[in-house]
Amino acid sequence: MSEEKAVSMNGPVCPLPLRHDEKIVLGHGSGGKMSHDLINGLFVPPLANPILAVGDDAGIVPIANATRLAVSTDSHVVWPLFFPGGDIGKLAICGTVNDLAMMGATPRYLTAGFILEEGLEMALLAQVVDAMRVAAAEAGVKIVAGDTKVVQRGKADGLYINTAGVGVVPEGVTLSGANAQPGDIIILSGPIGDHGIAVLGARGELGFDADVVSDVAPLNHLVATMLAASRHIHVLRDPTRGGVASTLNEIARQSAVAIVLDEKAIPVRPSVQAACEMLGFDPLYIANEGKLLAVVHHQEADRVLGAMRQTRYGEEAVIIGEVKEAPKTRVLLKTTIGSLRVVDMLAGEMLPRIC
Amino acid sequence: MSEEKAVSMNGPVCPLPLRHDEKIVLGHGSGGKMSHDLINGLFVPPLANPILAVGDDAGIVPIANATRLAVSTDSHVVWPLFFPGGDIGKLAICGTVNDLAMMGATPRYLTAGFILEEGLEMALLAQVVDAMRVAAAEAGVKIVAGDTKVVQRGKADGLYINTAGVGVVPEGVTLSGANAQPGDIIILSGPIGDHGIAVLGARGELGFDADVVSDVAPLNHLVATMLAASRHIHVLRDPTRGGVASTLNEIARQSAVAIVLDEKAIPVRPSVQAACEMLGFDPLYIANEGKLLAVVHHQEADRVLGAMRQTRYGEEAVIIGEVKEAPKTRVLLKTTIGSLRVVDMLAGEMLPRIC
């Protein structure tokens, strides 16, 4: 991406002492003057908050009245760095926000660790950091600590970003993949496979324009709405790498239950379905970055579904299956032709570097 | 490093379902079955704790009675992965533990994000994870969440590790680089430059055997001892990348004070001094990973120094300078020949990939 394009897409994020036509050099990872200029010129202004601005070795954050925290981390190595609907910066924020939200926690504070490749355009980095700013603002989280390392040319694809996060778990909330019970209903928040196919399209690997946009989004406000609607949500999990199939297998194993899905109930956009058929992929294994699966007590399913549909990221929510006693640890699919087949975890690697 | 050697150095860390002669493939980052086998076979057993073992999207940790948290992150890209005195795993734990400790926090929970290169030997990875286990045990922290990504051959040097951490800040403790006051005394916990020169030696870049061992160590118990000895410690900071010179410049800027050092008081081991002279390096700019600088009220300096010397990582602690009113934001060095020279931040890059 040219420097001109990068800047014109977002505008300069702040009055930069660093010039946008500069590139990252090893000195930016030295811990000396160049590191400080990069941090204070490029990272801190868009992410500005009083905690980060202090510039100490760790951010000090208030946490009064919390008794339990959720703590999570995700490294992001997605390639390409930009794709329809998002980029590595937005993905890095949403990935960790969503991991915290899936435990019912209110995400509060994030850290960001950057591994930059020598030669990376400063304008591109500024654009990624601005996407992080926007996503963090939507999620309502603060980035309170950061770190920057620089590796030699060829030793990273532009940049890798790790985010870690801390959230506060409200009293009485105890979600876990181990809590699914026979009789529970499985709710999916919307159509699957958008993220994986959007990234594949951005790589030019589809051979056609799929017109698919990544679903990458922060789901914490959706989760808050769901938890306010019902005290009988047992499991929440976002089906990222490995897709819905792998995530439901995890839950079936953790809870020692069976999960039976209704294939015709599982929403897949026609463009995603078409791309999957061309490539021989099953949408059940494609990564999502803005969807969640909820396992809910059967008497509360309609209430939870109704609440979800009032929200931006849950308006296409549907019931896709139910939890059974047996066969324990198995996920089964009632196909559109009426047969029942086992859906296993993703076995090998379908789409490397998808997040 | 051969698989045989790696195993014989540490012994197998656990009964692995994964064979030690296997290598990392892209499928280990898929989020499917291979990811689960890697996590449950290699990562979880040595780091085992009930929080990590649950296998949810985030670790849930108790945090009753805390009002302030310290939150920090560090990515580690050190090359080579093993060096005298440590390795990337030990470094990753100590780096984040020390950042939290420098705020006076008690480090509690860590996350670990791995970016693995396709082809990495499983035995080497197991050895790194075991080093993390040992360092975490010494520091008294738990690893409560993790993430693994795999990138193609050539896109990382074996592995990069990010750690993030959460610590509890005790009531009444308010350390910051902004708290240095004229009249304060600067204490250094021991000889400088060991880590940087040890890594350089491991790269074969010295051209001779320097016989230097990295100082990488968790400093949180040293800090606890210091804080118990005095309520008048104003600043703690570990002089990592950029060395003592860059770290003291940060403090001088944050506090808007001058810092005057006594060159002859600054301890440098003869082997480190010799290596620096050969290479044209100034030890003041060489990275340390197990040292700290303390800025202490002058009436408490002896008490703090005495307490430090009772500890394993503080027994060589010395007073190296003092804080003055002016010239603000400057660090000055009284040289051994009696002149006074300005010591600036590290300007460019001296030793890439040192941590």
Query: Which regions of chain A have little confidence, pLDDT < 50, spanning 5+ residues?
Result: 1-16
Separation of the first and last Cα atoms of chain A: 20 Å
Major pleated sheet of chain A: 7 strands, mixed
Shape of chain A: globular
Q: Quick one: CATH superfamily of the largest domain in chain A?
A: PurM-like C-terminal domain
> How many H/I helical runs of chain A?
10
Derived structural class of chain A: alpha+beta
CATH class of the largest domain in chain A: Alpha Beta
Quaternary assembly: homodimer
What percentage of amino acids of chain A are in beta strands? Answer: 15-25%
CATH architecture heading of the largest domain in chain A: Alpha-Beta Complex
Mean pLDDT of chain A: 93
Q: And the CATH topology of the largest domain in chain A?
A: Phosphoribosyl-aminoimidazole Synthetase, Chain A, domain 2
Largest interface: A-B, 90 and 90 residues
Tell me the Rg of chain A in angstroms.
21 Å
Strands in their spatial order, largest beta sheet of chain A:
9-11-8-12-10-13-14
Number of strands of chain A: 14
Please bin the fraction of helical residues of chain A.
Answer: 25-40%
Question: Could you say how many structural domains of chain A there are in total?
Answer: 2
Element string of chain A (H = helix, E = strand): HHHEEEEHEHEEEHHEHEHEHEEE
